[in-house]
Design a protein that fits this description.
Helix content is 30%, strand content 26%. It is an alpha/beta fold. It has a single domain, classed as 4-Layer Sandwich (Metallo-beta-lactamase, Chain A), CATH 3.60.15. The strands form three sheets. A seven-stranded mixed β-sheet has the order 1-2-4-5-6-7-8. It has a six-stranded mixed β-sheet with strand order 9-10-11-13-14-15.
Length: 325
């Protein structure tokens, strides 16, 4: 009996060991990390309009591009927002508006004109449940490549088969003019050519339209001139029922600095003094009315409100993630 007890005891020990080793093996065989992000879109309702933010990608800006405050003051704002610098991760965003009668895109992203980290507007538009062929109007805030590059597909053809492109006349006259381009410094000339090349297919099809003033052909959407960043820089005011959203294009490039210090401009501003004056005036107006706003370079989805910080600056209050009602 003693021998039998010993054999059974040893068998039990072996079984326990096998069980433990099995647990270790199972733990070591967990599924691999996915390491991909969710599709880059965010949806919300504005009255009866559906608004979808579309993530185009991210680029790194350099703090040295910022002007209008001492470097130490700019760095203090970055430090306060826990951004080490000097590279500043910056989103690029477009906005899709379904009015129920029209499907309107505000800006088109960059496609690949500024490298592989951008170009997400079209795939994210599709992931959001829409077809580019259903877009019937694209309103462009201004003719920089990261806002209009996505108008063309990889073959250089119009990415939106039936869309009419709308841009302010002041903007179109400036960036599509060979005469204006010839007067520019050599390092800026390629950006004017880029704008002309991207616009050309739509112009040849008769689907490039300019406007003057606030009125646009789609009810519920008005243009708001906000010059400075570019001569015809345009914000779009979206209204449905009693709700308003102002999509302000490039009023702000670096939220961590320019909200607190509206006096800070960036190299990309064609008229830095005017850009600062425009930003101050619009901040004041939007903060007073508590208007919902969206920006192409704000942290995704780029939608929130401006509120005073008690001094000469402002704070950004982003919307909270929520299901679509």
């Amino acid at each position: 009996m003693i021998g039998g007890f010993y054999v059974r005891r040893q068998a039990g020990v072996l079984l326990s060991l096998v069980f433990v080793l099995g647990l270790v093996s199972t733990a070591a065989a967990q599924p691999p990390m996915i390491k991909t992000q969710a599709p880059g879109y965010y949806r919300m309702m504005l009255g009866n309009f559906e608004i979808t933010a579309l993530y185009d990608g991210r680029i790194d800006l350099d703090a040295k591009l910022l002007h209008g405050a001492p470097a130490s003051g700019i760095q203090n704002e970055l430090t306060r927002m826990v951004i080490p610098g000097p590279k500043l991760p910056t989103s690029v965003i477009a906005y899709l508006i379904n009015t129920g009668s029209h499907l309107v895109l505000i800006d088109a992203g960059a496609a690949k004109v500024f490298g592989p980290t951008l170009g997400g507007v079209l795939p994210n538009l599709k992931a959001a449940g829409y077809d580019p062929a259903d877009v019937d109007a694209v309103f462009i805030t201004h003719l920089h490549g990261d806002h209009m590059g996505g108008l063309l597909d990889e073959a250089g053809k119009p990415a939106f088969a039936k869309a009419v492109i709308y841009v302010s006349q002041a903007e179109s006259d400036f960036y599509l003019s060979a005469t204006v381009a010839d007067k520019m410094p050599s390092d800026l000339k390629p950006y004017f050519k880029m704008a002309r090349d991207i616009a050309a297919p739509y112009i040849s099809l008769g689907r490039w339209k300019t406007f003057v003033g606030a009125d646009l052909p789609i009810p519920g959407i008005k243009a708001l001139a906000i010059p400075g960043h570019t001569p015809g820089h345009t914000a779009y005011e979206i209204k449905s029922c009693d709700q308003t959203l102002v999509i302000w294009g490039d009023l702000v490039h670096v939220m961590a600095v320019q909200m607190a210090k509206p006096e800070v401009s960036i190299d990309f501003d064609t008229d830095q003094k005017q850009a600062v004056a425009t930003r101050r005036a619009l901040f004041k107006r939007l903060a007073a009315a508590k208007t919902l706003v969206a920006g192409m370079h704000m942290p995704f989805p780029g939608i929130g409100r401006v509120r005073p910080d008690g001094g000469s600056g402002y704070n950004w209050t982003p919307i909270e993630y929520a299901p679509v009602p």
